[in-house]
């Protein structure tokens, strides 16, 4: 993973030059968006490197975790597409990969045979229980620069932003 410091410095310099050429540019908002995207990208790359030994990528992991965390361990592919922000084609690939490893199973819904239901298997539950604890220390270290109050404030502010921009996000644009 590349170091972020030179990218952060270059970004501030570049935004500063653009702001000089375009005085009406909302500098603070541009910096916030760029910092969020840069930070999220770095966190994702780091997280995916931790998932690689388990044979998962982020979308596979999120799908498996949604099934693991659901009340009855099931969901339809459509529900998972929405929650995991995946297109149906990619959800099919994810479901195939997880089913091939016996982490999930597919069945038809009892109330509607046309609907497919994905269910985490007992092997999938054991897999999640085994793989999660080693992921916690690097996650905790990523936010060690904040004290507990700062983490809570940061979480609250990110949630506030997410809920604010939700109606502004174009539903036709892919994630």
Topology:
Elements: H1 5-21, H2 27-51, H3 58-69, E1 74-75, H4 77-84, H5 88-100, E2 104-108, E3 116-120, H6 122-142, H7 148-165
Helix pairs in contact: 1-2, 2-6, 3-5, 4-5
Descriptive key words:
7 helices; 65% helix; MarR family transcriptional regulator; elongated; 3 strands; 175 residues
Short characterization:
A hairpin with a 7-residue loop joins strand 2 (104-108) and strand 3.
Describe the structure.
The structure is a single chain. This protein is mainly alpha-helical and 175 residues long. It has a domain at 45-144: Orthogonal Bundle (Arc Repressor Mutant, subunit A). Helices cover 65% and strands 7% of the residues. It contains 7 helices and 3 strands; from the N terminus they run H-H-H-E-H-H-E-E-H-H. The chain has a 3-stranded antiparallel beta sheet with strand order 1-3-2. Strand 2 (104-108) and strand 3 (116-120) form a beta hairpin. Helix 1 runs antiparallel to helix 2, helix 2 (27-51) packs across helix 6 and helix 4 (77-84) packs across helix 5 (88-100). It is elongated and about 60 Å long. 11% of the residues are buried.
């Amino acid at each position: 993973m590349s170091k972020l410091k030179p990218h952060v410095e270059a970004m501030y310099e570049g935004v500063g030059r653009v702001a000089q050429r375009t005085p009406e540019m909302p500098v603070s908002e541009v910096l916030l968006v760029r910092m969020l995207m840069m930070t999220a990208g770095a966190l994702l790359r780091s997280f995916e490197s931790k998932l690689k030994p388990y044979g998962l990528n982020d979308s596979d992991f999120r799908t498996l975790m949604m099934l693991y965390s659901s009340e009855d361990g099931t969901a339809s592919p459509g529900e998972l597409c929405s929650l995991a922000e995946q297109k149906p084609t990619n959800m099919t690939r994810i479901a195939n990969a997880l089913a091939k490893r016996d982490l999930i199973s597919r069945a038809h819904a009892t109330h509607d045979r046309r609907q497919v239901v994905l269910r985490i298997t007992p092997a999938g539950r054991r897999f999640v229980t085994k793989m999660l604890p080693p992921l916690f220390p690097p996650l905790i270290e990523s936010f060690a620069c904040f004290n507990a109050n700062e983490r809570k404030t940061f979480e609250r502010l990110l949630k506030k932003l997410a809920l604010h921009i939700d109606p502004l996000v174009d539903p036709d644009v892919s994630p």
